[in-house]
Design brief:
The complex is a heterotrimer. By secondary structure, chain A is mainly α. In chain A, about 25% of the residues are buried. Chain A is built from 8 helices and no strands. Chain C is α/β, with parallel strands linked by helices. Helices cover about 45% and strands about 20% of the residues of chain C. Chain C has a 6-stranded parallel sheet, with helices on both faces. In chain C, strands 3, 4, 6, 7 and 8 form a 5-stranded antiparallel sheet that branches. Classes of the chains: A mainly alpha, B alpha/beta, C alpha/beta.
Chain lengths: ~210, ~280, ~375
């Protein structure tokens, strides 16, 4: 029973959504809207479970004084403070949530995490980009052309470099990407079909019964 | 040979310090490498430049604080360009975490040109349901956004009397850091309502947008920090703005960062071949 | 006289010089005005098409006559020769006429035949997709059936998946945990579904080897599914007692906060193995590079083409695109799943053939005598 019901739901929804794609009638459009609305509602319930997991995980960590437990205190305090401010003073523009938490915490923290990429790219490139084979050497040359061509310094070295970089990006690079995308698209359809037909049951917790 | 061994294993902290210093240095003391604008940025600039005064440019703010350094300069330059030419600006967004960024732009930029909220610029805010939002705006913007981001009813904003639906807008630019983003505007607004669309994207996703330029679905493209810098230069060249150009300033840093990474790769390879020969 | 001159000068500033000609000769009315129900839609829409008889018109006026009488509904630019009226009701007949306007002249066309809008039950412009879908489904189902009959199916080696066993074993030997990141996508992403399928297999091995597993989640729905999968896998491996509730947990839905949390987890726990399988965005390198510095074996896989280079650079093994989807078939060796892989490969062959034929037709259609090929090409485009 625990397996039959989810499989039946997946089969019904999968087939009706497939049919919906080919039917432009308002009834079909209405069904699509209704379904997407339901997905959002179910998602909201899951958020409750997620928050529950968050509280359990961190409070347990603090209680057992596991490694890095003090970070969990920060997480829990952040959850409580954000919730209280959001519920108490609202989330409208000009509110504390927007002016203080969003502008002064979220924006700089997010930007810092993203900025770390510059450093990680340098260390990862240094460690991994070795011309071990002919193919790797070719890739390295292409990478150099693109890296130089994408910044002003490249144009000042050789005027045609930006054009060459664009060519590398939009011709050989694009061709390879498209090949991967074809595979991904077909694989995606096949996976969906397998899930709909109940052949792929890994998401129910592993193979056939 | 110990020297080459050491070169093979430079401590990552040294790499980070060198990188950090070289990124900060040009921000403090610009090198003035100069930015030349490519054809894609120029196409977008020309398209925005040809919007008749008094009409509206729609900008969709589809990015969040993490990609703000890369994409916000585009938003600012586009708004300055529009205001300098007396083109009105309508903003909306598909990313909830980007709402504050559009708000920042709406608060800071219009006063530079003496533009008034409600008459020359309106920010609609964010709504859930990507395709439904865009399709709804195609029918009637008021149905999707009965009020703007600040809670004013749209009827009370003079600008919104002339802009009822997407067909009343001669051009839109979607500044996107990922999905949802310009592809949604292409799929739902461009193909269905014939909305002329330009895009601003992060450098990493730029190559993905090229095919849309080739097919003419996109009118111009700003790719990453460089795209932003190119647009800033174009806006300044026509004397539309004298404001500080953050993307242009950052281009020197980016140039140096690229050079550092390349030097590191070269050093790593020299050391690799030197030690490999010895091994063989 | 002077006010008249000023008016003329002012007019000269905004209007192009042809206006003078337009004042002299009125424009011809638009011809071939046609109104029809917009095809393949949900109704409430009528499409208008017309042709310009000359180049004198400065604007077009569009007039609709319905039960409420005639009404000018829109003006459009001289370059436009079609209009989509989406303010009509279904099953009510409307007539339309179009006027060419130049200077003070407004010249109306003859009204187009009355038309009513209706919703359609089938989108004929998607027939090509339907055909492609049927062919592909048939291939997949055929190979699944032949796999059922016990036909031996060959799958090439995928190094990243062969390494799973070794990676789990390594964790047991070192007494360190395994971190499994099911991506940052939602449960609707195929990559996430594929990742959850692999999680089931990995969790089974973890239970058998008695290692520790940590699964941090970004999406609350993925979290609930992942928890059930891991629990179920422990039960299947005969070790339900070994499952720890807090091994699968929800972190945050904020992208970079999640990346920071997982980075912190990896730095503190120093896992023996990291799995990054599923949908990833800009955080991919932030995760993979931190993982690399802690000395873990890293197995990554994603269908996000942008992030593949980062994973390939910073991880030991990377599953590229569809290899990720193939993983559950590869790991479980279940004939039904293997059969579908074979079907997928033949589907790819069909696409390759279509590309070759399409390109050839496109080239041939440029030859004037063979231009009718361009009609066939239209069949391949989607709307």
């Amino acid at each position: 029973m625990k397996r039959t019901i989810p499989l039946a739901i997946v089969l019904t929804m999968g087939i009706t959504m497939m049919v919906q794609f080919f039917v432009p009638h308002p009834v079909s459009v209405g069904y699509y809207d209704l379904t997407t609305r339901w997905i959002r509602i179910v998602g909201a319930f899951a958020l409750v479970l997620g928050t529950g997991s968050f509280i359990m995980f961190h409070s347990d960590k603090v209680r057992r004084r596991r490694q890095g437990w003090y970070y969990s205190i920060i997480s829990l305090v952040a959850l409580v403070v954000t919730t209280v401010i959001g519920l108490g003073w609202g989330i409208r523009p000009g509110s504390i949530l927007q002016n203080v938490i969003y502008a002064n915490f979220l924006v700089p923290l997010n930007a810092s995490m993203f900025a770390i990429l510059a450093f990680y790219m340098a260390s990862a490139a240094y460690r991994a980009f070795r011309a071990r084979t002919k193919e790797a050497a070719l890739l390295l040359i292409a990478a150099f052309i693109v890296m130089l061509g994408m910044v002003p310094i490249g144009a000042s070295i050789w005027g045609k470099l930006p054009e060459l970089a664009e060519w590398v990006l939009s011709v050989p690079n694009m061709a390879a990407k498209r090949a991967i995308i074809f595979g991904v698209a077909l694989g995606g359809i096949a996976t969906s079909l397998k899930v709909i037909l109940g052949i792929e049951r890994g998401w129910l917790g592993g193979g056939k019964q | 040979m110990k020297f080459f061994d050491a070169l093979q294993r430079i401590d990552r902290r040294i790499i980070y310090i060198v990188m950090g210093l070289l990124v900060i240095f040009p921000l403090v003391k610009p090198l003035g490498l100069g930015v030349s604008s490519g054809p894609r940025a120029r196409t977008l600039f020309d398209a925005v430049d040809s919007i008749p005064a008094g009409r509206t440019l729609l900008i969709s703010v589809d990015f969040d604080p993490s990609s703000m350094p890369e994409l916000y300069p585009m938003l600012a330059a586009l708004m300055r360009h529009a205001f300098a030419r007396d083109v009105k600006v309508l903003l909306c967004g598909l990313w909830v975490t980007g709402a504050g960024l559009a708000d920042k732009a709406v608060t800071e930029i219009p006063p530079e040109y003496g533009k008034k909220y409600g008459d020359d610029v309106v920010y609609l805010g964010w709504k859930a349901g990507i395709d439904a939002v865009i399709l709804g705006m195609g029918e009637n913007i008021k149905n999707v956004f009965p009020t703007d981001y600040y809670g004013h009813p749209l009827d009370s904003l003079r600008m919104m009397n002339e802009v009822v639906r997407l067909r009343d807008i001669p051009m839109a630019v979607a500044i996107s850091a990922g999905t949802p983003g310009y592809t949604d505007w292409l799929n739902f607004a461009q193909s269905r309502y014939g909305l002329r669309l330009g895009a601003g994207v992060t450098a990493v996703s730029a190559a993905d947008a090229y095919p849309y330029l080739q097919t003419g679905q996109l009118t111009g493209l700003l790719a990453g920090m460089k795209g932003g810098a190119e647009y800033e230069v174009l806006v300044q060249k026509k004397d539309y703005s004298r404001a500080y150009m953050p993307a242009v300033a950052a281009m020197d840093s980016q140039s140096l960062a690229h050079v550092v990474i390349m030097l590191l790769v070269i050093v790593g390879n020299i050391a690799y071949f030197a030690t490999r020969k010895r091994g063989a | 006289m002077i006010p008249f001159l000023i008016l003329l000068l002012a007019a000269g500033q905004t209007a192009p010089p042809e206006t003078t000609a337009a004042v002299l000769a009125p424009p011809a009315p638009p011809v071939a005005v046609r109104a029809f129900d917009t095809p393949n839609d949900a109704g409430k829409s009528i499409t208008l098409r017309w042709s310009a008889a000359d180049t004198l018109a400065r604007t077009w006026l569009i007039e609709r006559t319905g039960p409420e009488g005639p009404k000018v509904i829109a003006t459009s630019e001289p370059g436009e020769t079609n209009y989509l009226d989406e303010e009509v009701k279904d099953r009510i007949r409307y007539t339309y006429r179009i006027a060419a306007v130049a200077g003070g002249d407004t010249v109306w066309s003859a009204p187009a035949a009355a038309v009513a809008s209706t919703p359609q039950f089938f989108n004929t412009s998607r027939v090509n997709i339907l055909i492609a879908m049927v062919i592909f489904f048939a291939l997949v189902v055929y190979y699944i059936e032949s796999a059922k009959k016990g036909k031996n199916l060959f799958v090439r080696r995928i190094a990243g998946l062969d390494a799973v066993e070794e990676a789990v074993g390594r964790a047991t030997e070192m007494g360190k945990p395994i971190v499994y990141v099911p991506g940052l996508g939602s449960v609707a992403d195929i990559a996430t579904i594929a990742s959850l399928n692999i999680l089931g297999e990995v969790a089974k091995k973890v239970a058998q080897y008695d290692s520790a597993l940590l699964v941090p989640n970004r999406d609350p729905i993925v979290y609930t599914v992942a928890r059930e999968i891991v629990k179920e896998s422990y039960t299947k491996a005969g070790r339900p007692d070994a499952f720890r509730q807090d091994s699968v947990f929800f972190v945050t839905s904020e992208q970079f906060a999640y990346a920071a949390a997982v980075d912190g987890l990896m730095v503190r726990e120093k896992p023996a193995t990291n799995f990054f399988l599923g949908m990833f965005w800009a955080e991919s390198l932030v995760l993979a590079e931190t993982g690399a510095t802690t000395g873990a074996i890293q197995i990554a896989g994603t269908d996000s083409v942008f992030q593949l280079p980062f994973f390939i650079t910073a991880c030991d093994y990377t599953l590229i695109g569809e290899e990720l989807y193939a993983a559950s078939a590869y790991l479980s060796r279940e004939p039904l799943l293997l059969g579908s892989l074979k079907g997928q490969d033949y589907g790819k062959m069909v696409i390759l053939l279509t590309l070759v034929v399409g390109s050839a037709l496109l080239l041939l259609s440029k030859v004037p005598a063979l231009s009718f090929f361009s009609n066939i090409l239209g069949f391949f485009s989607t709307r």
